[in-house]
């Protein structure tokens, strides 16, 4: 667990960026002060040299005010790229003006991640020996970092572990919240790897008007819905930050290591924090970063710090892990790999992420069959035409139709889904009929979830949430 | 452990200050924009009203750029008060240009604390039923916050607990490091109260070029010297942050509560942090604050959050506890009381605090009798005259003589000390003779410390550092 001093001697892109910025200030100050020409020349010389190093290190030209990120994309996802219709995507805000939702191809360029293309999907199929999950087949998990590297190692019998999480801001979870868990369970089954799930109850306490006790209770309640996704208790550790931080000196040591290697300037650039933010928010990113390193879980991995971590998550969480990947080599740990999902649309349309506080914005895991039926019929934004006649004549638009989008997430059969798309687009399938298909898909799915959740006892939750060894091939 | 929402609804001086500052900005912006007169008038009206509230709350006039602190002194100890010879006193820097040392009376005014006057010393004697410790008799503990309140409660059978600490930046401790521990042991014996001692190994890792493992090892080594001061294992809990943070969910919960109620603006004002500081430094003050609240130690105090804390420490640590006292009522906890000591002078003179990295700047706890003799004779700054003749004629100056200062700390007999002072001032006592008296005081004291430390086993350290119940009257 010692620091790796060798790794620290090389400057990171961010350190070099900061040095460049301060050297630029220096040059300006000398010029303003009408300093000696030789002195100014020397300072300019150093500035140019630093710019060369920066270009060499990041592959990009230095630009004042644009800190570097992983793969040299601007750190902050919300930075403008010259167009005015930019989507906003960060851990607290997701918005777009487009009814089809966020432009994910643009996001890949802006965040500096890589697209999950057909080649990668095929490769996952080959390595896993299974048909890829529908989320992969349909581009719902659409972006990644270092997934090829994970597969390379896996093919050489070098395994990895999975890390995902959730911010427990209320008891209520909706179907959209299940996306990362459904996919993570598939990865766990297919690759037979251990999994850690972080419930950031401390984060919710810091950000929301809630007490510590409420946040912790939400964490435990949410854990039940997560367990109901079918995770293997022998391979899965679920933890509340409020519990685990106070139960694992190794976890805290990694938090402190990360905290030492990230400045306020950096979190300001990445997350948009200001001087009026509380110091808890400012240091929280280190707590979401720490589970990316295997020695944060000695009960599972012993003192091994070299086990690769793979993080399936929605793309809005990427800023945390860009920061983590920047820090990792400087503290002697491997960078976590990532698989990014698109956002699950609100019933009202794909322009926004859903709100757990608006019961009509999504299908909740506690909804009755009747509530599901009413919500879909009343609130699901339709891509159909105004009258049956027009619809039959011109057809509907599945690209903006929320019922069709939901089916993309939850209907397993590819052929059936494609037929629905064609029939809706041609006008053969009416909006009411499409909604009925969705209702018939959701009702049994939610009922089965509720049935599984009903059987999850406090004892089971305690089992999942107790730090302990896990079973997996090492 | 729930938050106290009632307490939170009242604005703290700092919140009101921030509101005032932003209202001032607002008025200026309206004027600059040549806004409607009625609008400007309304904004000015609100500004005046806020100023009245501020005066009522803090007893002071609002002044832009001067945030409020406890007792309305400026938060930052280093703020100028109009004179140019201001001493610098904060947790990382202590300096003065005066050979007699820091001007402590001025510091009391600047920090907004209270002087430990003869009346308070007499009262402690009465309540404790013992002669006050020489550190109290001689003004070495010279300043306090709320000590009368602690004694009021104690007289009504409402007890308190002690909290002190040390930053383990190296294995080497010198006699100056013992001052708070010698005094704390006396308080523990006299009042029969439990004591917690925090070793901030996480802080040292964040501030210094050291590994986590080194800092933790220093903490354990320092614990041995602290235990050698004679603390009662049944009443004393010593902890390393790196260990205890990961062993007590209750401690972490208090850290997060504090972190939620302190902004970057505030720690910037109090500690002088900048945007280039790492996020670990920025959030660390919450970790030094947390032991001030009794429910951080459930193994000792159960879930009780109302037990008063008394903190004996050197005055440079006060900024941490001004912050703590500001936060306490907002999270429903009592403010900790404090007893502040002066600084222990370096052998070279009272202008600076000692450095653990300069072996000749003080007497170390590992020094041999010969080393003690050589150091005092060679390095202890003398207030004597240049020649014996002059000294006999004009006398020496005990106020700047480091040997005499050290005797003030360590020679128990008041009459003997006073006689030494008079004889040195009159010239009857020569510098060499004064140094000999100091050497004869230090040699047995250090030898006894070394003897006690030798018998402290790893088992004993483990006992002190294990979270467990303590024995005390409740």
TrEMBL record, chains A, B:
Residues 12-68 form the WHEP-TRS domain. This is Tryptophan--tRNA ligase, cytoplasmic. One of its GO terms (biological process) is tryptophanyl-tRNA aminoacylation. PANTHER family: TRYPTOPHAN--TRNA LIGASE, CYTOPLASMIC (PTHR10055:SF1), TRYPTOPHANYL-TRNA SYNTHETASE (PTHR10055). GO terms for molecular function: ATP binding; tryptophan-tRNA ligase activity. SMART domains: WHEP-TRS. Keywords: Aminoacyl-tRNA synthetase, ATP-binding, Ligase, Nucleotide-binding, Phosphoprotein, Protein biosynthesis. The keyword Protein biosynthesis applies. It is an enzyme of class 6 (ligase). InterPro entries: aa-tRNA-synth_I_CS (IPR001412), aa-tRNA-synth_Ic (IPR002305), Rossmann-like_a/b/a_fold (IPR014729), Trp-tRNA-ligase (IPR002306), uS15_NS1_RNA-bd_sf (IPR009068), WHEP-TRS_dom (IPR000738). Its EC number is 6.1.1.2. The keyword Glycoprotein does not apply. Residues 1-21, 60-95 are annotated as: Disordered. PROSITE patterns: AA_TRNA_LIGASE_I, WHEP_TRS_1, WHEP_TRS_2. Belongs to the class-I aminoacyl-tRNA synthetase family. One of its GO terms (cellular component) is cytoplasm.
